[in-house]
Automatic annotation (TrEMBL):
<keyword id="KW-0963">Cytoplasm</keyword>
<keyword id="KW-0342">GTP-binding</keyword>
<protein>
    <recommendedName>
        <fullName>Signal recognition particle receptor FtsY</fullName>
        <ecNumber>3.6.5.4</ecNumber>
    </recommendedName>
</protein>
<feature type="binding site">
    <location>
        <begin position="157"/>
        <end position="164"/>
    </location>
    <ligand>
        <name>GTP</name>
    </ligand>
</feature>
<dbReference type="Pfam" id="PF00448">
    <property type="entry name" value="SRP54"/>
</dbReference>
<keyword id="KW-1003">Cell membrane</keyword>
<dbReference type="GO" id="GO:0005737">
    <property type="term" value="C:cytoplasm"/>
</dbReference>
<keyword id="KW-0378">Hydrolase</keyword>
<dbReference type="InterPro" id="IPR036225">
    <property type="entry name" value="SRP/SRP_N"/>
</dbReference>
<dbReference type="InterPro" id="IPR004390">
    <property type="entry name" value="SR_rcpt_FtsY"/>
</dbReference>
<dbReference type="GO" id="GO:0005525">
    <property type="term" value="F:GTP binding"/>
</dbReference>
<feature type="domain" description="SRP54-type proteins GTP-binding">
    <location>
        <begin position="323"/>
        <end position="336"/>
    </location>
</feature>
<dbReference type="GO" id="GO:0003924">
    <property type="term" value="F:GTPase activity"/>
</dbReference>
<dbReference type="InterPro" id="IPR013822">
    <property type="entry name" value="Signal_recog_particl_SRP54_hlx"/>
</dbReference>
<keyword id="KW-0472">Membrane</keyword>
<feature type="binding site">
    <location>
        <begin position="238"/>
        <end position="242"/>
    </location>
    <ligand>
        <name>GTP</name>
    </ligand>
</feature>
<keyword id="KW-0675">Receptor</keyword>
């Protein structure tokens, strides 16, 4: 499993302990189990072999095929006229890019076609790819490990978004990056959520703080204290699924967030919202509501495979540009990967 987290570089003033060894290690053997990320590298890009990159791009294109088919086919043998722009507008709206992002892209595209004197469909398609990449680029942000000890993450989302599964996948990836992880089953209202998280914990040999019934804020507080006492790297706190319209329940999420802060100054360090990519424009409404309530630091967009609504990322970028840390296109661990704007657009428009 290749890693895709950016790690905080080891401080230079801390010397490495040199222990004489009777037999020198072979040159290919790493001196330490983890190599700090080089700050000059592009943020959040996985360190992987070309074959692995190709495999991910193949799966990403397949996952976004329903969205991309409605867009990319427009440019096959097309003439550069008002009909093409009208069809492109309809395709973007059907992909749930939203009115704001659609108007922005079409206006910018028409201006670029005129200024650069683009005469064929391939050139117009390339121009659209460039504009869409520039629009989505602010959503691309590194997820850095090692900034806090422990780093406390609060995970929220509506029921059915894939929140608990996402937590399990992220925990496994963090372990692959040498991080010690603690999970907290803060969804005390749904027994299935606790049981699901316990299964992930057993599968990955991760401790799960859980109560059969009780106050979610108390479970979260206990988890933070336990993570601090054990000297762990990451504490991930699951929370009960909430609809943005359930105002009294959203207030409870705010309470959980405040109590986490009492357990550790500055926590939670990451407040993530998990979104089902199939919900389209409703996903944008969720981002607005949860961001207003919790001040989100990042998004995880799941289930993009099989949806024709992948354009919602453009809507988020225009209306509420909360960073998209990860996107998911399947059930496997490797199907959850960092969001990279250029990769996403390439899979979308080809």
């Amino acid at each position: 499993m290749f890693s895709f987290f950016k790690k905080k570089p080891v401080a230079p003033e801390v010397p490495q302990v040199a222990t004489p060894a009777p037999v020198p290690a072979p040159p290919s053997t790493p001196a330490t189990p983890a190599i700090p990320a080089i700050p000059d590298l592009p943020a959040l890009l996985p360190i992987e072999e070309p074959a692995q990159k190709q495999s991910w791009m193949t799966r990403l294109k397949a996952g976004l095929s329903k969205t991309s088919n409605n867009l990319s086919l427009l440019f096959v043998g097309a003439k550069i006229d008002d009909d093409l722009y009208d069809e492109l507008e309809a395709a973007l709206l059907m992909a749930d890019a939203g009115v704001d992002a659609t108007d922005y892209l079409l206006t910018a595209l028409k201006r670029k076609v005129k200024e650069d004197k683009l005469l064929d469909a391939a050139a117009v398609k390339a121009a659209l790819k460039q504009l869409l990449t520039e629009l989505l680029l602010p959503l691309q942000k590194p997820f850095e490990l090692g900034r806090h000890q422990p780093m406390v993450m609060m995970i929220s989302g509506v029921n059915g978004a894939g929140k608990t599964t996402t937590i399990g996948k992220l925990a496994k990836h963090m372990q692959s990056n040498g991080q010690s992880v603690l999970l907290a089953a803060g969804d005390t209202f749904r027994a299935a959520a606790r049981e699901q998280l316990m299964v992930w914990g057993q599968r990955n040999n991760i401790t799960v703080i859980s109560q059969a019934s009780g106050d979610p804020a108390a479970v979260s507080f206990d988890a933070v204290q336990s993570g601090k006492a054990r000297g762990l790297d990451v504490v991930m706190i699951d929370t009960a699924g909430r609809l943005p319209t359930q105002l009294h329940l959203m207030e409870e999420l705010k309470k959980v967030q405040r109590v986490i802060g009492k357990g550790m100054d500055g926590a939670p360090h990451e407040t993530l919202l998990v979104i089902d990519g199939n919900t389209g424009q409703n996903a944008l409404a969720q981002v607005k509501a949860f961001d207003d309530a919790l001040k989100l630091t990042g998004l995880v967009i799941t289930k993009l495979d099989g949806t024709a609504k992948g354009g919602v990322l453009a809507a988020i970028a225009r209306v509420r540009p909360v960073p998209v840390y990860f996107i998911g296109i399947g059930e496997k661990i490797e199907d959850l990967q960092p969001f990279v704007a250029a990769e996403f657009v390439e899979a979308l428009l080809g």
